[in-house]
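Course assignment 3, question 2. Fill in each field.
Student: A.L.
Task: Predict the tertiary structure for the chain below.
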Amino acid sequence: MSSQSATPTLFDLDQPESAVAKKRKSKKTPAASTKKAPSSRRATASSMAERQREISVSEFFTKNRHLLGFDSPLKALLTAVKEAVDNSLDACEEAGILPEISVEISQTGENRFRMAVEDNGPGVVDTQIGKIFGKLLYGSKFHKLSQSRGQQGIGISAAGMYGQLTTGKPVRILSRTGKRKDPVEFHLTIDTARNKPEIHHTEVIEWDKAHGTRVEIEMEARYQKGQRSVDMYLKQTAIANPHLTLHYTDPAGEAVSYPRSSEELPPETIEIKPHPHGVELGRLIAMLKETKSRSLSGFLKEEFSRVGPTVAKRIIKDAGKGLSEKSYPTRIAREEASALHAAIQKAKISSPSTDCIAPIGEKLLLSGLEKELEADFYVASMRPAAVYRGNPFQIEVGIAYGKPGGVGLEVTDEGRIRKKGKAKAAVEDLVGAADEPIRVLRLANRVPLLYQQSACAVTKAVIQTNWRGYGLQQPRGGLPIGPMAVVVHIASVWVPFTSESKEAIASYPEILKEIKLGLQECGRKLGTYIRKGKRIKREFEKRSYIEKYIPHIGIALQEILDLTEKDRDATVETLEDVLHKSRKF
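Answer field:
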């Protein structure tokens, strides 16, 4: 056998394995034996550094518009109306004007709607129109510790940005600041890369309003009626703001008005300083660096509410670390600031003043419920002011119970029980049916919250309340069943929303506790009403049985006593009178 044969010989097989391997390896082509070079890196530190750039807040929210409540065409329309109405109400109240607001929604094409909100407020000066409507995170309320609907300076400009993204059309604004001032018209869009307004058109126009603002935004949207619609939001807004006159025209051209039930504006709120117990260490350090006070004692008294000379002296003494009343604030180190913060948390300091919040009021809340909700029983209560993280807040609760469309029972002045009401077709309103879960109306600084109900502290507090003790059915871990609407309002200098869209309230223990106490207070009165109604119903059933057999008793007495028909009828009438008089309520 030739030694050049590819088949290994017996001699080859007898060789060590390494020798056979070497022979086979020698037959491979040179290309196959060459090792592959490692691949080059896809990016370097320098190339990655070149791609880094600052992100505009407008650009961020353009890509994350769901954070602001513009995550669906249906919700986008409601959010835009809400932001415009909130701004109008804030402006009117701050200027001391009884608000009158008009909301118009018209369809301009398939899945396209134009929203217009007009108010009789103080108007907006020309130089501020671009910044207010065309710049995100621009406003006067973020650093202001007093109650207001707006907080972040995002809402109305975000609505305009959404309209610009979906239709490409600018926002139209009309404004007039007084009778002697010319009304002006602006058309503007937002430069999202720089978060700056771009004004495309401005001119003086004719407008019959003495003062006010009108904003129009065309957007991709969807309109429908229901519990989370523009219609329901406006109805709840009328309940929460009894001093408001509201006019609304829907896409079908149907107009509805909600007249005001009060001629008094909410009390004016006073801005307060932050409360010491609500300030975290990092914020305290920043305040020490920024203050203009020249002494630590002066810093505590001037920068915080409820801190007087005695309290300031006690805090500084408890802090130690060589701090004194004359210590220069800007020179205080981190360890000293930490000791000062710990002393502040231990100090007994009065609760913040409540002049900074303006609740609806028990009387006006009850008036709003009676005006807008059809029910048989109404009750409202207002809790004393409380504090979370140093921020004062107040909880108000209202309940509307019963369906007047059904047939109920009532006691007359003579002590008689009779049916009341007339049966009628059920209509969709805020008081649900008897076999459905109750309706929960959530309000924050007089603004209705329609979405994210299950994530809200209000809903959690309603579920955690024992409604069985007040005569209602309640499944475990669910809302009670019955024809009832519960209204819960939180008034605060800073409502702790769970997201920028301001749709649900965070579940701080202090807030949950106050809501539950308010619900229990109203629940006790509701329980008394329900028990009385059940007692009347049982009495009515017993009485109906007796009244059914009284004529037969009269006939039997006539046969036994040989009475005339006249005497029999008189006896039956006497028995009925005795029956009615025997009932005591």
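Instructor remarks: Residues 509-561 form the longest helix (53 residues). The domain at 276-346 is CATH 1.10.8.50 (Helicase, Ruva Protein; domain 3).
Grade: pending
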